[in-house]
Structures are given as C-alpha cells and as structure tokens.
Sequence to fold (330 residues):
Amino acid sequence: MNNIAKKFFMALSQNETLNTTAKKWGPHLGAEKVVAGTTIPETITSIKKLNAYGISCTVDNLGEFVSEKNEAVKAKEQIISMIEAIHYNHVDAHISLKPSQLGLDIDFDFCLNNLTEIVAKAAEYDIFVNFDMEDHPRLQPSFDILDEITKTYSNVGTVIQAYFFRAVEDIKQYKDLRLRIVKGAYKESENVAFQTKEEIDDNYLRLIEWHLLYGKFTSIATHDHHVINHVKQFVEEHDISRDKFEFQMLYGFREDMQHGLAEEGYNFCTYVPFGDDWYGYFMRRLAERPQNLNLMFRQVFNKRTNTVIGLVAGAFVLGRLSKRNKKDKE
Ligand code: FDA
Fold:
C-alpha cells in the first residue's frame, strides 16, 4: 500500500497538466500549510515570524525542471529580488535553489551564468546560497557547476544525499563547504542508490558523524527524531560545538519540534518554499515517505480535500487500468 501511495504521488508530481492547473489555483489541498507565501512580501512576513522564535530560514523559489530559457531567466530574477528583500528587511535568511530551475536541462553555460549572477549578488550582501541536489542524472552536472563557482565565491554550499553510493566520496571532496545532509527524495535506481530504509538510515548517520568531525559546517536536514536524538548524543560525546552544525526541517512540518530545538539552544533553520509553482514540491512531500503521507492526511486534509484526492486517485487507477487493457489488446 505504501509503495502504491508513493508511486501515485510521484506520478502526480510529474503530471504537467495538473501542474499548470495548480499554478492557476494557488496553493490548495493542504499545500498552503507547507508553502510560506506566493509573493515575496508574504514570504518575508513568514520569515519574520520564524526569526522571532530564533529560527533562521533558507528560502526556496518553488519550481524545477525548467525547459524554456525565459522561465529560467524569470526564476533568476525572482531569486535576486528575494536576495534584495532579505537584505533590505534585515531578516535572518539565505537562499536554496535548484539548478534545474535555472536552466541545467537547457544548457550548462547558460545555467552556470545564471547561478554565478545569483551567487555574486548574494555575495554583495554576505548571503549564503545553497545548491539543492536533485535526481541522479543532474547530480554530476550540478557538482560541475559548483566546482566552477567555488573557484571565485565562498558563499556557496550544497547537499549530500545519503541514498547514493557515491555520497561517501562526495562528502570527503566537499568537506570544506557548508553541507546539508539529507536521506534523498527522488526515486533512484539500485545501480546508484541504496533502496532499503535501513541502508539509507545507516549511511545517513555515518555521513553526518563524519562531517561533524571533519567538515566545515553541517546542516542535518531531517524530520526523524531518532536521527536528531542520535546527533544530540554524538555531539555531546565528541565535544562538538553547537556553532558547527544546525538542524533543518521543512516549513510546516513538526513545528513543535522546530520551536523546541531552537528553545534548547540548537541552531535551527527552516526550509521556506515560496511562489506559485507549489505542485511538484507538494506531491513529492506526499510521495517521499509513507509516514509523512499519513501525517499530512491527519494534519491538513479535511472531508472536502479527501474527496478531491479520492476522485483524482480513482481517475489515476482507472487511467492505469485502461492503459493496461489497451496494451493487453495490442
Ligand atoms: P523520514 O521520512 O525518513 O521519516 C523517518 C521517521 O521520522 C518517521 O518514521 C517518523 O517517525 C518521523 N517523521 C518523519 N516526518 C515526520 C513528521 N512530519 N511528523 C512526525 N514524525 C515524522 N532531498 C533531496 O533529495 N535534495 C535536497 O536538496 C533536499 N533538501 C531538503 C532540505 C530539508 C530542510 C529537508 C528537511 C529535507 C530535504 N530533502 C532533500 C528531503 C530528504 O531527502 C528526505 O526525503 C525527507 O527529509 C524525508 O526524510 P526524513 O529524514 O525527514 O524522515
């Protein structure tokens, strides 16, 4: 059942028609709970509320897998406007971005130029920029862009995804950067990535421990309290200073725990997505982990949205069945 739910939401996340329709609607179906705003001023207001709890923010202009140059340029301009808004509003926030939103799938040099422009603007204001990591085909090109940019700028870092076999090498290569360590959110092949929860969790802890001991600054990005408790104990035992790491969670998830960790005196950073391109992000959150799916249902779904989801799920299953029937007949 978990796998069906996962496949269902992953398939929905890639549906272009639903994505286009969703953009026109604005965040719905519970997405409004996990998206901090559709405009920059709304998002700045959300950031100020988090800052008031002593929580810093990493801000993501929603959107990815862009295939038209004008869309990538629009995204770049929006991110630069957000950098200016962060600076002029004196909020405690930095930028997270997805290379595929800035043209990675279109042309390497075009994407490199867009990212360089963003990083240069952020450097003017001493604002950090994190390159989020996407799926495996985009991994090496993203690292290649990072390598080019770090020749000139030091206000950049990236993400290590623990499900990849290569993560253990990547973390060593990039140990002098501020790194966010995550389990990994995309569906990856068994040729490149661990598939079981146990293997991913084991590698996750191993990478976190290594980077806490030998790396520059570690962002531990997880909603998993087992991992968080393990890290708390590990840093205590190894006398690792609290200014060498932070915990990160996504906006709208486990808010009590976010506030609690900040109150306990740990550095805490919330990942704050904004904009109208919420659909793919939201569906991936639902697909990501069955536990999150259940929690989302409990937290934000009411009778009306359950009916909508039920209808969409029904249409999806019928669509799959009729495709299979057609294939059988051919
Ligand atoms: P996971 O989903 O594995 O759950 C483990 C356990 O934690 C559950 O069994 C449950 O007990 C508890 N739990 C989880 N969620 C809960 C909730 N909402 N409420 C209560 N309990 C809960 N991925 C990627 O590929 N590239 C990237 O750049 C990023 N960036 C990123 C930034 C940030 C800030 C975060 C938090 C995550 C990412 N990710 C990501 C996503 C990441 O790779 C991963 O898919 C998700 O965080 C889900 O894994 P978790 O470690 O959160 O817990």
User: Anything to note?
Assistant: The mean pLDDT is 88. The first helix runs from residue 2 to 13. The pocket of dihydroflavine-adenine dinucleotide is lined by residues 132-133, 159, 161, 182-186, 221-224, 248-250, 253-254, 271, 288-289, 291-292, 295 (CB under 6 Å).
